[in-house]
Amino acid sequence: MSTPLLELSGLTIRFGGLTAVDRLDMKIPVSNIRALIGPNGAGKSTVFNAITGIYRPTEGRITFQGQDITGKHPYRISALGIARTFQNIRLYKTLSVLDNVRIGAHGIGRGGLFGAIVRPPGIKAEERRINEASGDALELVGLLRKKDERADSLSYGEQRRLEIARALVSAPQILLLDEPAAGMNPQEKERLMLMIQQIAARGVTIFLVEHDMKFVMDLAQQVTVLDHGRKICTGTPDEVQSNLSVIEAYLGKEEAV
Amino acid sequence: MEELLRQYMNLYYIQVLTLICIMMIAALGLHLITGVTGQLSFGHAAFVGIGAYAAALSNIHWGLPFLICVLLGGLAAALAGVLVGFPSMRLTGDYLGIATLGFAEIVRVILMNMDITGGARGLAGIPRETTLVLAFVLAAVAIWTMYRIQDSRFGRALVAIREDDIAAECNGINGLWYKVSAFAIGSFFAGVAGGLYAHFLQYLNPSGFGFAKSFEILTFVVLGGLGSIPGTVLGTTILTLLPEVLRFSAEYRMMMYGLLMVIMMIFRPRGLLGGVDLLPLLKRMLYSLRKKQTPLNGDGNGRSV
Q1: What is the spatial distance between Cα A173 and Cα A178, in angstroms, rounded to a whole number?
Q2: pLDDT, tens digit, 9 for 90 and up, residues A8-32
Q3: CA–CA min distance B37, chain A (Å)
Q4: Least Cα separation, residue B160 to chain A (angstroms)
Q5: pLDDT tens-digit series, residues B115-142
Q6: If both were cysteines, with which of A58, A105, B73, B83 could B55 make a disulfide (CB 3.0 to 4.6 Å apart)?
Q7: Which fold does the domain B2-293 belong to in CATH?
Q8: From CA B78, how far away is CA B192, in angstroms rounded?
């Protein structure tokens, strides 16, 4: 295997006495759909927050394209080509759908205060590029005709799709999806799966956290299982499903309910 | 130009209108900091004060041209704005508000105790340079600039921070840089307003830039509608006019001012123009006007208005 796109080595995150993530090692190659699963509180979202720079890891290293990004600011990590969505939707609620995506396209442009006031031709061209890219991203998630509506007027599933458009518009190398199918009905999930496959086909590596087992098993090429912050196993969906410790930790618990 | 105006307008009206234009520039600055970027600032009058003293002193001591003095006032305030912007890295919401309040008090006390500012006696002998026409033009430029800022990559980044700072960071927006920029630009506006104010009143006193003034500017912005440029313009105009209009009530004046403010907030809790999009509203109004006119011309059963 060539050098992985994203590599976590010995990633440990502690909050006071609680170890949320414990010496996690992961390698995500280019153009893979990788899922991270595990019971509630296993530390999945914490891993995402560490990768995107919201939390500073207690120990361990995160490298992206061979570059150490451990403890970098979120805006710098975003500029390198890592985009994400949030488990508890974090849209710019009072803004229009289009503006949400245009803010996601922040990294495409350079324009500052001078550009805003004077508007030289370069800035106008840049705005056009941002608008085009935003239109494309909205088209992909099927929200183009709702571009002028307020973000908080969208349905739950639409809001999740808008988050994907906002992340995707920055043309990232890797897209981190935090429970993208949560709260969606079966048809919406079906559409979402196709959408994620389309995005992956464009060469964007996908890394997702998800609770819906069927969704994960149908979509992911590789699955990593986390329990109490520890990695239990990594493998193809079939391998993971037949792994005994996984069934004990995760699937077994669900059946017991 | 000013002479021409005076032939048609009473001096008192000219002065009130000039004051409205000056305060509007200051209020637009706070609009950028609090309304657009969402950073609570309780010390805006301090920036107006810094601009006023810097402009007045550079006029009195260096004899620089008036407009250069106003520009220097704006830059001095912007510099102070950068200093105040840095706590916004760690402080949010009310806590940042308290920090800005503290900063404003420090500024007032310094102005009160410096020799060059004339201390508590105030600073007199500033030449009268600000005219209504100039104040009006600069207020118009300020409004135009604010519209340009808000409709740009820069402005969108500011709004993103107000809406959700964590999502903004993950969208590649350097929160600290943009927050400090908002403070710097907003304070620049305040400083320019201060420079005009100094050359309008011809006398400055530190007590005029205390927290009462800061809250006054904040009410302009909030009562008009947080985050709305027309709201800020309307809020400033109404609240500057109100004490003048209420002069007839003599000692009850400020009481009535307060009462009207409470009533306005009860009926428009998000501000006079909060959540109102003016363009579609105007279009609707024009549309309904046209509809009303048609039957009038048609079957003639409409009463003439």
Answers
A1: 16
A2: 999 999 998 899 999 999 999 998 8
A3: 13
A4: 6
A5: 888 888 999 999 999 999 999 999 999 9
A6: B73
A7: ABC transporter involved in vitamin B12 uptake, BtuC (1.10.3470)
A8: 10
Q: Which residues of B touch A170 (CB under 8 A)?
A: 171-172
Instruction: Identify whether the C-beta of residue A252 lies closer than 8 Å to the C-beta of residue A64.
Output: no
Per-position b or e across B237-259, b if 16+ CB within 10 A of its CB: bbbbeeeeebeeeeeebeeeeee
Contacts of A126 in chain B (CB under 8 A): 153
Sign of CA dihedral B62, B67, B70, B76: negative
Q: How many angstroms separate the CA of residue A108 from the nearest CA in chain B? A: 10
Residues 6+ apart with CB under 8 A from B94: B40
For the CA atoms of A224, A226, A229, A231, the dihedral, rounded to the nearest 10 degrees, stands at -50
* Best CA proximity match to B235, nearest among B247, B217, B255: B217
The answer to whether the CB atoms of B170 and A83 lie below 8 A apart is yes
- pLDDT tens-digit map of A139-153: 999 999 999 999 999
| Averaged pLDDT for residues B23-45 | 96
Domain ranges of chain B: 2-293
pLDDT at A182: 87
Cα Dmax for chain A: 65
Q: Do B169 and A75 touch (CB under 8 A)?
A: yes
Question: Chain A closest CA to B55's CA: distance in Å?
Answer: 24
Best B171, B181, B226 member to test A by mutation, with max A CBs in 10 Å, is: B171
The pTM is what?
0.89
CB contact A83 to B (< 8 Å): yes
